[in-house]
Amino acid sequence: MLSRPCTYAIRALTYLAMQPPGKLCGSREISDSEDIPNSFLCKLLLDLRRKRLLRSHKGTGGGYELALPPDKINLLLIVRCIEGELAFTECILEDKECSARGECSLHDSWLDLRNQLVHFLETQTLADLVRTRQKQQAGSTGDRQRERGSLEDQSSDLSIKPSA
Amino acid sequence: MLSRPCTYAIRALTYLAMQPPGKLCGSREISDSEDIPNSFLCKLLLDLRRKRLLRSHKGTGGGYELALPPDKINLLLIVRCIEGELAFTECILEDKECSARGECSLHDSWLDLRNQLVHFLETQTLADLVRTRQKQQAGSTGDRQRERGSLEDQSSDLSIKPSA
DNA sequence: GGAGTAAAGGATAAACCAGTCCGTTACCGG
DNA sequence: CCGGTAACGGACTGGTTTATCCTTTACTCC
Questions:
Q1: What distance in Å separates the CA atoms of residue A18 and residue B38, rounded to the nearest whole number?
Q2: Among all strands, which nt has the closest C1' to B63 (CA)?
Q3: Which residue of A19, A48, B13, B79 sits 20 to 30 Å from the alpha carbon of A159, by its own alpha carbon?
Q4: Cβ(A55)–Cβ(A21) under 8 Å?
């Protein structure tokens, strides 16, 4: 449904969204925590930086941080960064685009569904994912995050905007 | 969205659904008409035959025909033949299945959407696709289907409700 | 039964995507 | 300004998907 790189990107960004503002995370930290192949993640992070979804800092103590507040980054944005702008524009039955109506036998009913998918991705933001994750972790073990104390602050914090 | 083999299969079956009952079509005829690589199509047709969606006949005058009336073959059936029974059961963010709730941060909202997709595929039958195609061809050039006369009979037949 | 035709199916090849490697560049602290 | 660190980015690998080739099997017609 979503490509592997896409899911990696979403998970990496979610991880970053859970960090206290200003905190930089190295690619290794992210890939270890999220169980993503490091070298591959680096490429994705590079893409995301080029598309201005995150900022990077080289050298000692460097790393990545979100370039936007988590509630301003929706999944569609991420998917389009990774898959290209044409994600979800092509036809379900042919290779071509056929955005015009009536070009393939499924088109009209399919368009509906696709719009729903796009809308779904558009309304789900990193802030939403962070919230869900925190709920899950609170519900289950809830001890993997203990070393960072900022989770509570953030969940109240996410609806506003930080960042430069 | 749908894999290439899936779209090939759907188009091939749609082609067959447009034939008069009893007519056999060779793999070459189908692949030429639908612009699908012939050798690859043969494999797909074989799969579809094994799953009892179509019947094949060897030898002179042989070929393929649908094993069921077009309004009894929905897209989900076809997709599952080609992709396997587990199509659309996996999670959007992880590799695993996580059909149980709350296992990934997107799960609940995603389930909704996935159910809609499955429902969409389930309600669209070959008969529907044939109808749409015929409308399109009538609208545009409308001369490529002239040699077969049975189109009208079929379309009156198709409007009955399938499902379940 | 033999020639011809068409599906069956295994072996193989090309293309694409996911993932790795490794050298380079840039920044930091001393 | 030097060594360490971490992002950058190109070249490469491996596996899966997509597609082809070719031999075998089965059927029809003569």
A1: 51
A2: C6
A3: A48
A4: no
